[in-house]
Write a structure and sequence with these properties.
mainly alpha, 0% strand, flat
Length: 73
Amino acid sequence: MRERVQQWDHYREWAENQPQQQGRPFEEILRDLDFLYGQFSEAVRGFDPDPEKLGIQAMHRVFELYDRRTRRT
């Protein structure tokens, strides 16, 4: 877990030093995502590879740890 926090710290430092870029309009990005999602079959779109949502739970734990760490600094 400590290694993951260090990676987030390193990413945050890197992101702060990157020039801001004008991206594509949000609507265009959504259209592209909708197109890509539509390329999957109904069976693939309906399949849940993580029915217990273990990945989401792990992500929430990491975000909570990161949030606690950033509030201390």
